[in-house]
Amino acid sequence: MDEIDLLGTIQKKIPELSKGQKRIAKFLIEDYDKAIYLTASKLGEITGVSESTVVRFAIELGFDGYPKLQRALEELVKIKLTAVQRIKVSSDRIKKSEKSILKAVLESDSERIHSTLSEINEEVFEKCVSEILLAKKVYIFGGRSSFSLASFFQFYLNLMISDAVLINSYASTEIFEQIYKIDDEDLFIGMSFPRYSQRTIKAMEYAHKKGAFTIAITDSKVSPLVRFADLSLIARSDMVSFVDSLVAPLSVVNALLVGISVSKKDEIMKNLDNLERIWNECDVYTSKAP
Fold it and tell me: Does the pTM of the predicted model rise above 0.85?
């Protein structure tokens, strides 16, 4: 089921539900952000039904069980909450965990990396590396908070291939001015995480329509970028206050850079050797010991 349409699905199901299940449905529609922390037993207690009724409700919606429904609600929270609501939800989460902010955030980031590692498709990853190396020109775009991720990727990729372009995202019209020449020999990489950037989605759609090979780096298979992507790399993200945690996506980007560097090792070593001479001549890096 598409998490984005989850609340609409629950609303439509209400006439078919039992009295107890209707109470669960009402609670989820009004307080879905609270439900992501509740066990089936606790949700049943709050809505005045048994734990088994909660499990049957999840199955009625088409999920394998309550944990899958809970996961869908987590995705919904990431997509729909405003910045102010995100602060409240993350604050409540940390309070409930009874951990320090530092420990809670670092543990959450660690979990996102482990989750990404267990779920990412290595064949798709290798195919992404191959397609980047085959492309005549690589366009990289990440809107809003993902711009820093895109900038990091382009900085290192530009040292390895002849034409890697970072798309500036200041104005929507400027985005299309930068990619209007894109064609079927080029590759477009779009990066976006909840709340998804509309500009990134539109740019990805345009590149796809122009015949360019498209790669999405995003957090979920139901991300709006995926439908315009030839390949998708799923990297888990999470909310830290209103700040997006991009630790796992950054690890995936780093892995892509390493994969490309290994494939072009001899050429890259030659390029870097030339660059080292230029950097030394221009005093780019300090040579003094600390």
Answer: no
